[in-house]
User: Fold PsbP C-terminal domain-containing protein from Cellvibrio zantedeschiae.
Amino acid sequence: MKSFLCFGKRLLVLGVIVMMSSCATYVLKPAGSSKVKNLSFNTSVNWNQIPSGFGPNTEVWTVDGALLNRLIFITGVESGKGIFNDMNKDTPMPKFNPKVLPHELKALIETSLTNTSGGKYPVKTTNLKPLKINGKQGAGFDLEFYNADGLLNRGKVVAVIDADKLNAVIFTAAAVYHYDKYTPEFENIVKTIQF
Assistant:
């Protein structure tokens, strides 16, 4: 009986450890100078890094929770690779080609974002325009989509190909309140990006 109780206590402790390790951990990213892999930039508000299931080339930040606002940093995607991990075998991620034209880059990101939901929540992109980030030619555009809860989200994307690798920052937020509140912060981040 005693050994059974000891085994039961060990099992309980192991269960608590496993449960705690599965909890999402947020890492504070204080306002000021920040860095995500090869991108450095400035922020004017505190953000939190949250776990990302998107893949090894991504990092996700939020202020109020990923359903309300988020930044997705994409860094160093190589030729022939997807921006995100495949989420569904029926909607595989398109592969990046460093020779893409701006409208093809927009389509790549739009399809990749749509495929993160298995195609259930299509992302619509508009307002494609050329831009320069830290002296490198890139593209910017707007996006919008409805999430699983039926909440309209709007966003902005900037993308640059540097040394044949894709780097991008995707900002999405609930269209009501959060999009207008955090768009200036996104624009400030983009203005200060250094490779």
